[in-house]
Amino acid sequence: MATATADKNVEAKPRQSGGKNDARRLRKTGMKTIAVDPKQMGRILHSESGHNTIFDLAFDGQSAKVMIVDWQYEPIKGALLHVDLKRIAMDKVLRVSVPILLKGEAPGVKQQGGILEQILREVEIECLPADIPSHIDVDVSNLMFGQIVRVSDLPHGGKLKFLTDENQSVAHVVAVKEVVEAAPAEAGAEAAAAPAEPEVIKKGKQETEGEAAEGGKGEKAEKAEKPEKPEKKK
Fold first, then answer.
1. What pLDDT score does 14 carry?
2. Using CA atoms, how far apart are residues 83 and 71, in angstroms rounded to an integer?
């Protein structure tokens, strides 16, 4: 369980705000507008610890521990537009969400033909900044069909406090849904029923042709039954 503290140094430069209103708003909130390298921010966000990474920010001759608390990408090109940074006190606990990773192969899947379903992908914890894990591994190599892994089953020591409900389900092995099994049968029934309409049409056509043929034969027979007029004697 690796921690999210990173040995990284990021240099920041002053940046002019959009206007007087923006500057006033930032002063009220205690925030500053700074410019940082977007590529460096992108590498931090895509690192193993992601936005929980704690790094050193150098600004105006001073350095502070910070972490990313919010960020925004440009929707079309995907460029990083801005990030919100928070100053971190290493001796004060933080509330963060960390990802849950399932490890191993569940016998309920391999031997019993079930499906491993992960219900919860992140868990909220409280701990000191230096103790923030990049992720929490859950071993499912003993998980049988019908069994459930809950938050209370997640591995943790005394350094982490789980804030998510301990009865919350994390993962379980379930049966294949009946809808999936019924789909091929329904498809087969539709395929079997599909030729019915052309057969009816074909049959009707044959009957029509048959009626026409019978009608024609009857007309010929009627003509044949009419007696021929006798020839007049001279």
1. 80
2. 4
Q: What is the pTM of this model?
A: 0.63
Spatial separation of the C-alpha atoms in residues 169 and 140, rounded to whole Å: 13
Instruction: Quote the CA–CA distance of 20 and 15 in Å, as a whole number.
Output: 13
Do residues 131 and 3 lie in contact, with contact meaning Cβ atoms separated by under 8 Å?
Answer: yes
Looking at residues 169-184, what average pLDDT do you find? 70
Decide: 38 and 79 in contact? Cβ < 8 Å: yes
Between β-strands 94-103 and 136-139, what pairing exists: parallel, antiparallel or unpaired?
parallel
d(CA 207, CA 216): 14
Cβ atoms of residues 108 and 141 within 8 Å: no
pLDDT above 90: residue 169:
yes
CB 35 within 8 A of CB 59: no
Q: What is the CA 145 to chain-centroid distance, rounded?
A: 24
Cα separation values, 161 from 2, 44, 67, 97, 188, Å? 16, 25, 20, 12, 54
Kindly tell me if the per-residue pLDDT of 221 is higher than 50: no
Provide the pLDDT confidence category of residue 215 given band limits of 50, 70 and 90: very low
